[in-house]
Amino acid sequence: MAIAEWCIFGAVLLYLLTIAPVKAFSFRGFRRFDNSRPRDPAFYDDPLRARALGAHINGIETFPFFAAAVLLAEFRAAPQNLVDELAALFLIVRIAYVFTYLGNRPTLRSILWNIGFAINVAIFFLPALRFYLPG
Question: Which of 21, 31, 92, 101 could form a disulfide with 55 if both were Cys (CB 3.0 to 4.6 A apart)?
């Protein structure tokens, strides 16, 4: 498997690991996660939990475009080394995005989101540009 394909799996793990610790660990003074009511809005009253949920949902929203872009680039014979590098860069940017989301840094978070989107667009259009790229 190519690095880019592992990055697809890494993107899935990232959005799962964004919310799992918040549900698993109980904070003093806040209610515990009730698996019989997984969408209980009161559980997310804590600002950190709310931001973790936001980062989790955003991860779910960005995943389809990332996965489709990587697979399209591979199926259409874009330079694999470039697909791998951009996919790894996307994952690094997404990790930083999650930390800025959890750390309540909205401006930096928006900048990182836009960088991640630009990387996705670049991956998506690699097949169209493959004749102009080295390798």
Answer: 101
